[in-house]
């Protein structure tokens, strides 16, 4: 379901660029209707330019990284008709229940159905890196389950190799380091996860264009976490980091299961750890990073408003937060929109710089790259405005 409302009305001071990004959904937000669209440049009371803030982007899904115009173009090329809710430029809004997840998954599946060629897959990686470059990202770790794309390119191995090859090319073109995370799905049998873990292990490495981590995504309420433990052991033996989803749709009890069985280096989301102070303390002590995606949390009904996402609670507790866009295609909010949300929650520029530092530290980039980017964050903060 998409939020509907009155005709679009733009406030005084909105530039053409603002209006283009804002779309109908954002205009309704300005008019007072509830939507998950975050405020844009003309509403920005901050000081420094967030697009110039160096950062890392470690939580974004493959097809979900697309822009709406690119999806429409790819659908036209593939001869696929898209549902209106993928082209109406209105941010997704569903309840945090099984019905809401079904609506979300159906929309994602419809988008994924247009990805039917090697060139389409390469385009996704290339455009994701370019979008990140425009937002000041120095590191992109894009997540993919190659199973869904395999029928169109000759199998899961060619599907993954295409993504890895283009990740190398995109790194050279944009200067954004692109790593890849292979993710299994909770909705499939745990044996499928082991197959993907073995595939990911063959391409494990630390350089751009390598597989840097192994994840577990889809509906947190599906599957038994313990049954995926063997797949994560395979991945870890190959040197891959553990990055399962958890703590968005379900709370602390589920997070403890994920931590116990999958030994995560990062948690995809993990935002609901804030409901349990002791759990947050454990996560901080163990050095587990949290890939927090505020716009996604609101679009999927986990929190009612952007202001309700407990960024401050997690930040002040010392959590290693890495803000991420998750699926900007559906939520119409990219990486810097997540930082905008933090700014509107009262984060100062110094605190936004610290969020960027934490995202860099949470990434799987080399120590030398991290040192360089952290110095650039300091320069952003010290520069005259």
What do these coordinates show?
The chain is α/β, with parallel strands linked by helices and 385 residues long. The protein has one domain: Alpha-Beta Barrel (TIM Barrel), CATH 3.20.20. 47% of the residues lie in helices and 12% in strands. The protein is built from 16 helices and eight strands. It has helices spanning 16-31, 68-78, 98-112, 118-134, 150-153, 156-174, 190-202, 229-237, 252-262, 277-286, 294-299, 311-316, 328-331, 335-344, 349-362, 367-382; strands spanning 55-61, 137-144, 177-185, 211-217, 241-246, 266-269, 289-291, 320-321. An eight-stranded parallel sheet has the order 1-2-3-4-5-6-7-8. α4 (118-134) runs parallel beside α6, α7 packs parallel to α8 (229-237) and α15 (349-362) packs antiparallel against α16 (367-382). Mean pLDDT is 89; it is low at 1-45.
